[in-house]
Amino acid sequence: MQTCSRCNTNVSDTTLICPNCQADLRVFSTTAVALKKFQENPRVLMVNLVVAEDACTACQAVQGTYPKDQVPTLPVEGCSNPDGCHCFYQPVLDEIYP
Known about the structure:
Order of helices and strands: EEHHEHEE
Strand order of the largest sheet: 4-3-5
Mean pLDDT: 94
Shape: globular
Structural class: alpha+beta
Low-confidence stretches: none
Strand content: 15-25%
Number of strands: 5
């Protein structure tokens, strides 16, 4: 499942346009918005793509730490979890405090 960051509607991983507010979920899903914020933050050096222990093979294949401009998009294409992709982004910070 993915969530629209504009109206908080939950939709399937294969939905590209929010049925409620017509937002492009490739840009306005909560995971896409989070990734964009990480990419714009100078304190974030890299982005870790985290998967669950029982993740499908498609998700396991993309698990890892990536340069900010090379992070795979979520939901993972080919994810076979019946409840949708459960992967998420985690920042790798240069410094924790200013």
